[in-house]
Specification:
Elements (H helix, E strand, L loop, with lengths): L2 H13 L19 E5 L5 E13 L9 E7 L2 E2 L1 H11 L4 E4 L18 H14 L2 E2 H4 L7 E3 L4 H11 L3 H16 L12 H9 L3 H12 L4 H7 L6 H19 L4 E7 L3 H12 L1 E13 L9
Parallel strand pairs: 3-8, 5-7, 5-8
Antiparallel strand pairs: 1-2, 2-3, 2-9, 4-6
Helix pairs in contact: 1-6, 5-10, 6-9, 7-8
């Protein structure tokens, strides 16, 4: 199996759940990438960054009081990344968050044991990369936090209705990644060589090497959106997003003026399309947060 395929399987677990200064674009966005690899002038990796994209009604956001922000997440990141998000969440009337759990479930507690294969994989990657796990760092207790996801029973029913299983989902990622690695798609995935793997196992600063290699694969996040999106959709993205947008509609009907949808980055393309089509919302600005620090400390100016 190509190493790039293994990397995309790892990325699927990261995207399913010190920050840079916000930098608004010079003009409204025509389309919104939600994850990017920031590079220096020499082309070296500096940081993996996630986007916060604001949506308003109409073309003149200054005339609108209501806004919805899509806050893309990577479920493992730097401690400062999650600290910045915790401070940001205090500014919203409602924060709609993802968690496949019953509506009355207890809020996740820091340090708890991971739930299921995905949670175990996420915490394994957390230790491997020297990062923090979202459920250990985000404060889910504030009153403005609103559960906006399927329950385990609803998610299981959605998978059964679509004839899906965890194996078929990962098989889709494997097939799409292999197609791109072989050049069958419009965009060929960046490849991981045996030398890359050798450097991770035997080289110095293994955490930084591994983070950089995985961050490079994020440039082809279309592997995930193609595998789980498209016309047919999936329970993992389409059905869960439907549940979240149903909660959004309820919040807007209550008169809530500022809403954040805090979901994994892989969900954001579908959210973007449906906010435009179903809610008549348009993206007006974006800011970027640094999720992973990819700088080499041995090469920083003293």
């Amino acid at each position: 199996m190509p190493l790039s395929v293994l990397a995309h399987l790892a990325i699927a677990t990261i995207l399913s759940v010190s920050a840079a200064d916000p930098t608004p674009p010079a003009k409204p966005l025509e389309s919104s990438p939600f994850l990017r690899l920031h590079r220096n002038e020499a082309g070296g990796p500096v940081a993996l960054e996630t986007a916060i994209v604001r949506y308003n009604l109409g073309k003149n956001p200054s005339d609108q009081l209501t806004h919805v922000d899509l806050i893309a997440a990577v479920h493992i990141g730097e401690k400062n990344y999650f600290s910045t998000l915790n401070r940001l969440f205090e500014t919203y009337d409602a924060v709609l968050y993802e968690l496949v759990a019953p509506p009355n479930a207890r809020i996740p507690q820091a340090g708890g044991k991971p739930s299921g294969a995905i949670g175990t994989a996420q915490q394994g990657l957390t230790r491997l990369l020297g990062l923090q796990f979202q459920l250990d760092q985000i404060n889910y207790k504030p009153r403005n936090f609103v559960h906006a996801d399927l329950s385990p029973r609803q998610f299981s029913a959605a998978m059964q209705r679509r004839g899906e299983s965890w194996w078929t989902m990962f098989s889709k990622v494997m097939q799409e990644s292999m197609d791109r690695a072989n050049g069958d798609g419009e965009k060929k995935s960046p490849d991981l060589s045996f030398g890359d793997l050798f450097g991770i196992v035997f080289g110095s600063n293994r955490e930084l090497r591994m983070k950089r290699l995985l961050a490079e694969q994020f440039s082809d996040m279309e592997v995930l959106t193609t595998a789980f999106g498209g016309e047919d959709g999936s329970s993992l993205i389409t059905d869960r997003n439907t549940a979240a947008l149903s909660v959004l509609r309820q919040q807007l009907q209550k008169g809530v003026k500022s809403v954040a949808i805090f979901y994994g980055a892989a969900h954001m393309h579908d959210f973007d399309q449906r906010l435009r089509k179903d809610f008549n919302l348009e993206p007006t600005e974006t800011v970027w947060l640094e999720a992973w620090n990819l700088r080499d400390p041995t090469q920083q100016p003293k």
